[in-house]
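[job 4471] stage=fold_predict status=RUNNING
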Amino acid sequence: MAEERSVDAIREAARTALAALRGLAGAQDLADAKALVEPLRNQRDYLAMAEVAEAVSRRDPGDAKNRRLYAQALIENGRTTAAIAMLRALIARLPADHAEVIEAHGLLGRAYKQIFFDTGDRDAPFARDALAQAIDAYRVPYAADRANTWHGVNLVALVHRARSLGLRAADDLDADAIAAQVIATLEAKPEAERDEWHLPTLAEASLALRDWMASDRHMRAYVGARDAKDFQ
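[job 4471] inference complete, writing structure tokens
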């Protein structure tokens, strides 16, 4: 396996890619730029991430993964409503079972969640609507497939918050039951198939069930992992 590039090397590669795409770029230049968007996210270079994703979109606006990552960069840069419009357009044009639709629903939930937490007045109608929209967005992929555990654990957190505020959003959902199902799904997954979100999702679900020891154990293992990225 090739050694991972340093933070500075990725930043320099991004500058090179942007210069190339502003000139007489070829197919390889475009491919190289596309391959940089996620590494920029992983090191939390959100401004550069947005710049490269924008440059890629000008040449290949149909690239679903790039559009989804661009929306994520917009959220991280405080352009949440623009991200929502981009994500809704992406969901509308792709098949419901497309992998990027699953990711886009999760980011849509993330965007509405950001709107809710950014406001100082949690009783404002727009804030409560944002919380309800976030719950709906995370609910779709989790209802379709219980393997979408990161959507499930976010759903748990938001249902708990809605209950604490006395909101009647998603009254039919049992947050503790969802948390238990998330844990069961993750623990049943073979070790070779576990990804970088396995431990933090277990920690969050355990926290929801007030299993403090398990939550602490999983979180310690997670933050101590040598391959953890800044974004995580």
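[job 4471] summary: The chain has a mean pLDDT of 93.
[job 4471] exit 0
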